[in-house]
Amino acid sequence: MKLVVQVRLRPTPEQAAALEATLRACNDAANFASATAFTTGDRREYALRKHTYREVRARGLGAQAAQHVIKKVADAYTTLKANIRAGNLGSEGSRRRARAESKPIVFRAGAAQPFDDRCLSWDHTAHTVSIWTAAGRLRNVAFVGSADQLKALALYRKGESDLVCRDGMWFLYATCEIPDVPVTEPGAFIGVDLGIANIATTSDGARHCGKGLNAVRHRNRELRRRLQVKATRSAKRLLKKRRRKEARFAADTNHRIAKRIVTEAERTGRGIALEDLGGIRDRVRLRKPQRVTLHSWSFHQLGSFIVYKAAQRGVAVIHIDPAYTSQTCSACGHVDKANRPGQATFSCTSCGFAEHADVNAARNIASRGVTGWAVSHAADDAA
Question: Residue 93, SS3?
Answer without folding.
Answer: coil
